Amino acid sequence: MIATSSMLGVAAAELGLVLTPGPNMMYLVSRTISQGRRAGLVSLAGVAVGFGVYLVAATVGITAIFAVVPALYLALKVAGAMYLLYLAWKILRPGGVSLFEPSELPADSTRRLFGMGLVTNLLNPKVAILYMALIPQFVIPARGQVWLQSLCLGSIQIGIAVVINGLIVLSAGAIAAFLADRPLWLRAQRFVTGSVLGGMAALVLSDRTRPLPA
Questions:
Q1: CA-to-CA distance for 200 and 22, rounded, in angstroms?
Q2: What is the mean pLDDT of each run of 10 residues along the chain (214 residues)?
Q3: Distance (Å, whole) CA 143 – CA 139
Q4: What angle do CA 78, 139, 147 make, to 5 degrees?
Q5: Where are the alpha helices (DSSP H) in the chain?
Q6: CA–CA distances in Å: residue 37 to residues 30, 43, 97
Q7: What's the CA gap between 92 and 142, in Å, rounded?
Q8: Whether the Cβ atoms of residue 92 and residue 194 lie closer than 8 Å to each other
Q9: How far apart are CA 54 and CA 187, in angstroms?
Q10: Burial of 192 (0-12, 13-18, 19+ CB in 10 A)
Q11: Are the CB atoms for 166 and 44 separated by under 8 Å?
Q12: In angstroms, how far is CA 148 from the centroid of its own chain?
């Protein structure tokens, strides 16, 4: 039986992460605005499968490898932080664009939309750290089988992520239309998003938590 505190802890952590601008949100919003809601939802399906891959890896204990070989975990954190800094620079640099500013992107096929959503999520440092270091801290061995608790807690995380990201996809067009005639708001959104991404990169680099064995 999973502790209620564990379920609430994972839910709160995921809400904070999914509402923070990151690679998944940037990809979903950009595809939705440039190619429509259907493209955004197909991309979201790929993102959801990516969560599933992480969940399976955590459940069967593959992520415990990082607990045994800390250097691999450190390399992943540094690479993830550099990626977040790159995204922040793209937004904050002169000539950078807002997350909700329409941009010309070539139309992708359904297969590519799904595949890019999957790859974007698999390379998302927020998700990697969530499954390797955060969720295991809410598993209480005395409460039952570790793999089953990991599966249930991961399912809670995926459910919240899919629902919130789905709402973002459905509302991205309306938000973009609202901001289109408000350049000051667009600049403010660029500044906030870029600053958040940069701050997240700093947090990832300074975080001293370590992946826990399954």
A1: 9
A2: 86 86 86 90 96 88 68 74 80 73 74 94 82 80 83 94 95 80 75 78 70 54
A3: 8
A4: 95
A5: 4-18, 23-35, 37-59, 65-68, 70-92, 110-122, 125-129, 146-180, 183-206
A6: 11, 10, 20
A7: 48
A8: yes
A9: 35
A10: middle
A11: yes
A12: 23
Tokens 């969720």 correspond to 135
Computed from CA positions of residues 157, 74, 64, 144, in that sequence, does the dihedral angle turn out positive or negative?
negative
Task: List the one residue out of 196, 211, 198 whose CA is nearest residue 85.
Answer: 198
How many Å apart are CA 138 and CA 59, to the nearest integer?
A: 14
- Integer Cα distance of 120 and 42 in angstroms: 13
pTM beyond 0.85 = no
Which tokens sit at 152? 């249930």
List all residues 6 or more positions away from 58 whose beta carbon is below 8 Å from its beta carbon: 131, 132, 135, 136, 150, 154, 214
- Rounded CA-CA distance 119/133 in Å is 21
Q: Which amino acid appears at position 2 of this protein?
A: I
Q: What is the pLDDT of residue 211?
A: 57
pLDDT for position 163? 96
